[in-house]
Amino acid sequence: MKVLKITPERCTGCLRCEIACSYVQVGAFQPAKSVIRVSPFEGHTSYAPYTCTQCAEGWCMTACPVGAITINAAGAKDVLDDRCVGCKLCTIACPYGTVFYDASTRKAFKCNLCGGDPACVHACPTAAIEYEEVATRDWLHDFAAERASHVLATNGGRR
Amino acid sequence: MPRRHLIIGGGTAGMNAMRTIREEEREPSEITLVSAEKPYSRMVLPYYLDRSIAEQHVFTTSAALLAQWKVKTHVGRRAAALDTKANVCTLDDGSKVEYDDCLIATGSSAVRAPVPGADGANVHSFWTLDECRGVIASVTPGSHVVMIGAGFISFTILNSILALGAKLTIVEVAPRILPRMIDDAGAEVIEEWLRAHGVTIRTNVKVTKIEDARGKKRVKFASGGDLVCDVVIMATGIKTNLEWLKDSGVRMNRGIIVDDHLRSNVPNVYAAGDVAEGRDLVSGQPALHAIEPTAQEHGRVVGANMAGKDVAYKGSLIINIVEVCHLDAASFGAWDDAKADTVVGAKRDRSAYRKYLFTGDRLTGAIIIGRSGDVWTTNDVGMLKGLVQTGVRLGRFKDYLKAHPFDVKTAYIASGTAGTLLPETVLGRPAKAPGETPVAV
Ligand SMILES: Cc1cc2nc3c(=O)[nH]c(=O)nc-3n(C[C@H](O)[C@H](O)[C@H](O)COP(=O)(O)OP(=O)(O)OC[C@H]3O[C@@H](n4cnc5c(N)ncnc54)[C@H](O)[C@@H]3O)c2cc1C
Ligand code: SF4
Ligand code: SF4
């Protein structure tokens, strides 16, 4: 299946992916409602987008007590709004931390790959996010390890 | 002759097992379900209580769907005895069901504190759909509800009681709330928050009696200070539904003792969910969990094994999350391990609290409290689960997490947690979506 391939070194932290994502997901330009999250590293000196891996187990999906998470045509785990009761079990079951909860609608929401045409990919000006037929990987590991190590080396980890 | 599977209990574990049998089997088999209640999800009851969903929504299947799955049903019947030598289960109406293998998934029931008046009118438990209907019928806007017990179940229905327009008082015999889910400092943060949101909490009080008082209820305490109210809800604990197995030869401790395939000492008898004392992922020891994810995973593993696969189970992780008045509280794994190396982070002004418990350089337990609106809290909830679930070696990033308890993501990603998780599945294959009708052969 096609997955979001992330090249963290290319991310400039412009947040266009978050804005595009929130528009598709909740119909408003509201980064707080985006399901792809640009995270700061090393005290805001670098950034990387992070989102659902559409993992094989789908812990969110198997945890849902009412079967409100299914697999859509793009192969993404997708929350069915009219089934979701807002119990948050999926938010604690997803071991990647990529299920969100909308307090105003009392529903869970997450990346559904926009049904096969992810808006974040179009929005990203530097191709830090691509949509490709590749095996998904831990795209951010080395990037984050290097930056966390810098922080540890420069001030022993203290702020 | 096709293999005959008997599923006893159609709750979370039983339903997951039946679905997985149909997903995994290579030859057609017979499934018979004996269940005291129609299959539904108990943990969805709080959302029916405040009518944010219709009653229909709590059911996890229908007669039509079970027929499609080719399941023979005895719904409304209880298993009364199991003859493990003859492979026969006797039901409460005296009828008998023969099996080749069987799953015991009879769950738990609510237990009321043994005080006079505990079984009186307008005193309720909240564990089953019937009990939920009872509470719905008694609570009206303006009612005063006294909830006895400040444990997890009380907290799962707290929002609903308030949403019904009732006034709520919680009383607890322990010195603090949520004694089996959150540590002392975390409980203090939640208590403060609840008081600020109009919930009255009385800890350290022992109920001695519940009396009728001219159409109302009077709750009496050892220390005095009676409470007069309209409705009493007792959330004072649960017990496993296992009495009917006493002469069966199935070995039990607090629950049914099972191996890593969820088999009891009787090789063709499995147990799953609340009644199974299976491996705890963090301690490696047998434990009784009584949580939904454990029942789901147990059920799926049993289903696969019943269908002829050989699936060993790694163990289940204790995870609990509850939201009260827009404050989230969650705990993971060995959050109360006194021997662990511990770090605490707090932002009192935002009611945010973190506690991480390390064994060596692995995270083996965690507590997180934060406002539901804080997106990073939701993010961290999942990542902490990932860290405890994988037991990934944090190495030097343990120091990072200790120094920056509110920046879980950096330590999580830097330690390669996501990469460790990606190949991980419960059944050794990708999970199937719930809507897909399981393919029988
Ligand atoms: C109000 C409430 C809120 C909850 N919230 C959460 C939560 O937020 N997170 C969480 O992880 N867990 C939660 N739980 C706990 C969770 O619901 C249980 O752990 C889960 O249902 C256990 O599944 P099970 O299959 O073992 O048992 P159950 O789902 O209880 O199913 C047992 C089935 O067996 C049947 N049965 C019993 N005795 C017999 C018999 N002798 N013969 C035949 N059938 C029998 C019962 O009728 C029932 O159908 C909550 C529970 C309640 C009540
Ligand atoms: S939200 Fe989490 S559990 Fe669900 S598919 Fe994505 S990574 Fe997997
Ligand atoms: S919050 Fe919604 S989608 Fe998530 S587990 Fe609960 S009902 Fe299912």
Would you kindly provide a written description of the structure presented here, covering whatever features stand out?
The complex is a heterodimer of chains A (159) and B (441). Chain A has 159 residues and is an alpha+beta fold. Helices cover 26% and strands 20% of the residues of chain A. In chain A, the strands form four sheets. Chain A has a two-stranded antiparallel sheet with strand order 1-8. The N and C termini of chain A lie far apart (42 Å). The relative contact order of chain A is 0.24. Chain B has eleven helices and 26 strands. Chain B has helices spanning 12-24, 45-49, 63-68, 129-138, 152-163, 184-196, 292-306, 375-390, 397-403, 408-414, 417-421, and strands at 4-8, 30-35, 71-75, 79-83, 88-91, 96-98, 101-104, 108-110, 123-124, 144-148, 167-171, 200-202, 207-213, 216-221, 227-229, 231-234, 238-240, 256-257, 269-271, 276-279, 286-287, 319-324, 327-333, 341-347, 352-359, 362-371. The radius of gyration of chain B is 23 Å and the shape is globular. The two termini of chain B are 15 Å apart. The mean pLDDT of chain B is 96. The chains are: A alpha+beta (159), B alpha/beta (441). At the A-B interface, strand 2, helix 2, strand 4, helix 3 and strand 6 of A face helix 7, strand 22, helix 8, helix 9 and helix 10 of B. One iron/sulfur cluster is lined by residues 52-55, 58-60, 77, 94, 96, 98-99, 110 of chain A.
